[in-house]
Fold this protein.
Amino acid sequence: MSAKFTTSAILLLLGTAMLPAQEAPAQADSPAAAAASANESQAIRQEMEDALTRGVDYLNSSQNKNGSWGSATRTKGLNVYAPLPGAHHAFRAGTTGLALQGIIESGDRRPATMATIDKAEQWMLTELPRLRRAEQTTMYNIWGHAYGLRAICSLYRLREGDDSKRAALVRLAEQQLELLHRYADLNGGWGYYERDDLATSTPTGTPTPFTTASALLAMKEAEQTLGLKPDPKVVKGALRLLRFCENPDGTYNYSYSHWIVPRRGINRPAGSLARSQACQLAQRAYGDERITDERLIEWLDRLTKRDGFLSIGRKRPVPHETHFQISGYFYYYAHYYAAGCFQELAEEDRADLLEPLARLLLDKQEKDGSWWDYPLYAYHQAYGTGYALTSLARYLGKTES
């Protein structure tokens, strides 16, 4: 060994010895790592609580005088088809149901919030019994019946101890359930558009799996919370529709008529990302053993990693104009039902999904406290906020419904 090399080696060793000692990185199972993880968890939970408060503040301040949310104003160059006046009655009913559910499930019980809840409850008791399809071709009322049922269930839990109010809510829910039975499609399930060349008492249009899943889950919650029994034939037909629209890869065709184009962009995994959550959750709720925890986790993981496909469509005024024919109004719908899938999982399986799922919502809250994904007259901020509030409340474990 040369003297030059020996000297260099000695200097290197001496230099290393003179460096300050470096702290060893905390092991994943060490007390320090556990404390850091707990602090991170507490931080994200506090951020979620703060977001809930800002969202409730927005809904408290934007409620209509009559207790509802939304209106037919703020039109744009391309508006969703909405025959007057029934379409807007349906939009307002669905929007009010979502906003009310979000407020209740947030756990906010400040006096101003309770006053908001009371006004919305009275609007629903008065207006939901009047809700019907706008005309033979347009059945937006399905959304009002479904999300009305979800809000009624939330109100029922809130009104514990008030037998009179609870009885009125059960009567209202019975009527909404009957209307869902009445408007079920002959092909099974529910849609929101009817054929315009064939007028029938029972709808014979184009049922969609996501509308069907939304109605089925509302009916299941009414059964579990209020003891109401959906018509078995209606349920059977709806589940048959879901299976008909389901593809082997876990995607769901956009509608009954899309069976002839299952590889169209909207029916592929990115296009189905917003629907698969709701459809799988509905099938599982009615006992489909194929919808395992592993399948739910797979699609929740996809939602966190492929959020860009959904979020790139947010706030675009033209429906289905972006990649995979995604529309803006897919976005918070997807997260609302993803949060329901999240609740189905064991606590240990939720841990790795909580922050990624919650972060997607937290980062999209607007400065005024609202969330919105598609400019729909003046309904979008209220329904988007309702979707997001309920989702965050579920991630926080405030409700297991």
Notes: The first helix runs from residue 3 to 18. Residues 1-22 have pLDDT under 50 and may be disordered. The CA atoms of residues 307 and 360 lie 8 Å apart.
